[in-house]
Write a structure and sequence with these properties.
This protein is α+β, with helices and mostly antiparallel strands and 444 residues long. It has a domain at 115-280 and 327-439: Up-down Bundle (Outer membrane efflux proteins (OEP)). It contains 8 helices and 8 strands. Helix 4 runs antiparallel to helix 6 and helix 4 packs antiparallel against helix 8 (401-435). The longest helix is centred in the middle third of the chain and has 68 residues, at 116-183. It is elongated.
């Protein structure tokens, strides 16, 4: 009895875990942007950029430090001085300076008054934040593209399985007809065997497609950041083919990939200026206050009556550092930074050409796939008519079994070609939307 209850509870638990979720493309994309690790990490990079900016700003703020020390001198250093200073010319006097114990505490402040590197870093802070924001947007677009393509691929695999299931059912009906003819001596055993072999082949292909569907669905869920055990349903209306509207050639300078490279160029310029800042002098303000105690005894908590004396001192100053010669090290780093900028500028030019090429190729793919879809749709309808006529002719003894099997194969092939054409169109459609910089419209 306990075992039955345990099995029942486990069954309930498995049913609860096996959630079924209806996914439109928009739902899938929104889910991915909220749950996929890539999108989350991109947002964390934006958060981290704020801390990097705060780090840069800290260099322009006062730097305050506290210090303390405690020193015991077991043997004090003896110095030899001229006795003339003490009215004893011609003699040398050994004198011991210092105390056995010395302790001090203080606080110091340093404030940069002029540091070109700090000023350059502060100007670069805003660009750093914008760089990570653009990078996050690019990551989101990559997630959208990847999920959309896999979403359509899952649908196509499922359509292939539906076609095979339908083909299996139709072939089963033909098998029953042939078997009836064979039982009545109107058909040969080889004809029945051919039907059985074909059904076996169809069933094998069905199993392969089912495995491909599982793999494709798992890939989709992974790219979405969705638990693998979740069952998903894809609405059929998501795969309707609507001819894309012709538009003017988009401005590639608005594409995220281009904007990211331009922002990277801006950061490299700031990096070059930061190195050039080493040519400039630096000026800083320093201030300090200290309290020191000395005496023959452990100085803490002691008073002059114990021979321990405490006193304070402070100082305020300016530190000026003027670079004169650095062995051409700074010049070399400036030139390296300049080469990095020029190299990136070549990447920017190449990226502009690539983005323009993507748009034109996407438009060509859209046009070609529309033609292919129309052709395959007509071919599919024609193949169905041929199959229907061949089946009727076979039943009337006007067509051979080979003609019937060939007609079934051609009909299945035509339907698969049509489904594949729809997939190619949908992928081309995603590429076109991407080339126009409008992938985010898929979640609106």
């Amino acid at each position: 009895m306990k075992r039955i209850i345990l099995i029942f509870l486990c069954t309930i638990g498995l049913s609860a875990n096996a959630q079924v979720k209806t996914l439109t493309l928009k739902d899938a994309l929104i889910y991915a942007l909220e749950n996929k690790a890539d999108a989350k990490k991109a947002k964390l990079e934006i958060e981290n950029s704020e801390y990097q900016i705060q780090e840069i700003r800290s260099r322009a703020l006062p730097q305050i430090t506290g210090n303390g020390n405690l020193t015991y001198n077991p043997i004090l250093q003896t110095s030899v001085i001229d006795g003339a200073s003490f009215g004893q010319p011609g003699t040398s006097i050994q004198a011991t300076f210092g105390q056995k114990w010395t302790s001090g505490a203080g606080i110091s402040l340093t404030q940069a008054l002029f540091d070109q590197a700090v000023f350059t870093g502060l100007r670069a802070a805003k660009s750093t934040r914008e760089f990570y924001q653009i990078n996050s947007q690019l990551t989101e677009e990559q997630v959208i593209e990847r999920v959309a393509n896999n979403y359509y691929s899952v649908y196509v695999q499922r359509e292939r399985l539906i076609l095979l299931d339908s083909n299996y059912v139709n072939t089963s009906k033909v098998r029953d007809i042939v078997k009836g003819q064979f039982d009545n001596g109107l058909a040969k055993k080889i004809d029945l065997d051919r039907i059985v072999v074909k059904m076996s082949n169809i069933d094998t292909e069905r199993q392969q497609i089912k495995n491909q569907i599982t793999l494709q669905e798992n890939a989709l869920k992974f790219y979405m950041g969705m638990p693998i055990e979740t069952q998903i349903i894809l609405p059929k209306e998501e795969f309707e083919v609507v001819p894309a509207a012709l538009t003017e050639v988009p401005n590639v300078e608005n594409r995220t990939e281009y904007l990211l490279l331009k922002k990277q160029e801006e950061l490299l310029v700031f990096k070059k200026k930061s190195v050039q800042a080493e040519y400039y002098p630096t000026l800083s303000l320093t201030a300090g206050y200290n309290y020191i105690g000395q005496g023959p005894e452990f100085p803490w908590f002691e008073k002059p009556s114990s021979g321990v004396y405490w006193s304070d001192y402070s100082g305020i100053g300016l530190n000026l550092k003027v670079p004169i010669f650095t062995g051409f090290g700074t010049r070399s780093r400036v030139r390296q930074a300049d080469v990095s900028i020029r190299s990136l500028q070549e990447d920017i030019k190449d990226t502009k050409l690539s983005l323009d090429l993507d748009y034109r190729n996407a438009m060509a793919d859209i046009d070609n796939n529309l033609v292919t879809i129309n052709n395959q749709r007509e071919n599919m309808h024609l193949a169905k008519e041929i199959l229907s006529d061949t089946k009727n002719n076979y039943l009337q003894g006007l067509a051979s079994l080979t003609d019937l099997l060939d007609a079934e194969d051609e009909s299945l092939s035509a339907q698969n070609n049509y489904t594949r054409a729809v997939l190619n169109y949908k992928i081309a459609e995603v590429s076109l939307i991407k080339s126009k910089g409008e992938l985010k419209t898929l979640i609106k």
